[in-house]
Amino acid sequence: MAQVENEHASDNPRDGLRTNAAHATSETTHASETPHTSVVPDPTDLRIIGRGTCGTIYTSTSRSTVAYKIGRDRDGLWNDIRLTARVHRALSDPDVDEWFASKLQVPAIKGWVADEAKECFWADYARFFPESHARETTPFVFALSLIPTIDSETRQALLWRYDFTTSRGAVLANPENDFCLIRPYLGLATREDEPLCRSDNLWNFPFTREDFRSFPLDSSWYFKQMVEEMATGLAIIHWHAHVDGMDIEFVLGGRADWDETHTDIVDDIDTSGPFCSSLPQHEITLATHAPDSDSLSHRYRRVRLYVLDFDKASPVSFDQPEAAIERLVTAVTCNDPYFPDPNATSGDDLKLWQDFRRAYLRTAKWVSESLVEKHGKRARKWPARFMDQWERKAGQLLEGKNGEFIEFGD
């Protein structure tokens, strides 16, 4: 998720993020017949900025601070909403803020279109979504805070430095490249012969360890900070939010502070039905305004680490700790190679893994006190047991890749 720069955007971070319900109903037709949807009447500049297995991502080209995810997988999208909200609460915990000066970020959920309002919403607004499937069907939709794009200077440098699956001319002329997020593949040494590193645009541009060392996005200092943020964030997801993190995505995007100024997801979202209308966060706005570019532009010249896409993740109970730890191991070893390589044996790569492991265990010790209170002192050993099993599983997978180890299921 990303955004383009606009010199004429509003200087109020809240402008366009949510319209007053009475004001919205006075300006809409079908949507005004139900209290379940609040929208700006003419969001003509919506644009696709990403696609995934669970949905398509849109934002306004007028430098919106909100993104919109639409798709047909009702259960997957609702799972994304509730677990993103859960992880956001965990990362926003005042105690976590006190422990970590800089930490992993997660988009805040801003609202959704309730089931009973969906037909009316798409009757009014399908024409504003660029892809035709939105006009022919009534997919589910929710809003979340936007991850800003990498700055334009860095985007241009990436376009000229790296090879793409299309021609250089096509890449440079492609307006999709106004949006850029970077996937930090710390588990990959180099781009050479790596399918994950093939790309035809900058939406989720892959970066390997070699790329970080030869093309510093911010500084060598930030690379170390990013590794620590990824480790501490994963520990908070596991041991404070109690989410397994299956198939989650990490991206580097621009810095922004609006996510911290209006985040209010209710506590009972975990027990509420999918796309219900009984919660106060069920209204969304098709936003077309955002903070003034002059006041925020400097923040886009630095990068920040985000985590997103919780549609395939699941809550974890530690009532059966061995089963829970096994699930965590499965999640980290089945994911894309974001994490440093546990099989590293020497040099910078070994140090990278050791730094990651150390930061993870330090954080897990701090944030797992509720588990210690519930399960006793034995719970203090669980994070280290997880890391040991992760290293063992990674070794087995490497042996299997080299033809030396084959593991058959039951």
Description:
Among the domains are: 21-147 and 258-302, Phosphorylase Kinase, domain 1, CATH 3.30.200.20; 152-214, no CATH class. The model is unreliable at 1-42, 287-301 and 405-410 (pLDDT under 50). The protein is globular. The protein is an alpha+beta fold and 410 residues long. The longest helix has 21 residues, at 347-367. It is built from 14 helices and nine strands. Helix 9 (220-239) packs across helix 12 (347-367) and helix 11 (321-334) crosses helix 14 (382-401). Strand 2 (56-60) and strand 3 (66-71) form a beta hairpin. The chain has a five-stranded antiparallel beta sheet, with helices on one face.
How is the biggest beta sheet arranged? 5 strands, antiparallel
Q: What is the name of the CATH superfamily of the domain at 21-147 and 258-302? A: Phosphorylase Kinase, domain 1
What is the CATH architecture descriptor of the domain at 21-147 and 258-302? Answer: 2-Layer Sandwich
Strand content: 5-15%
Write down the Rg.
22 Å
Strand order of the largest sheet: 1-2-3-5-4
Low-confidence stretches: 1-42, 287-301, 405-410
* CA-CA gap between termini: 40 Å
Content-based structural category: alpha+beta
Principal-axis shape equals globular
What fold name stands as the CATH topology of the domain at 21-147 and 258-302? Phosphorylase Kinase, domain 1
The number of E-state strands comes to 9
CATH class of the domain at 21-147 and 258-302: Alpha Beta
Mean pLDDT figure: 79
Number of helices: 14
Helical coverage, percent range: 25-40%
Topology as a string of helices (H) and strands (E): HEEEHHEHHEHHEEHHEHEHHHH
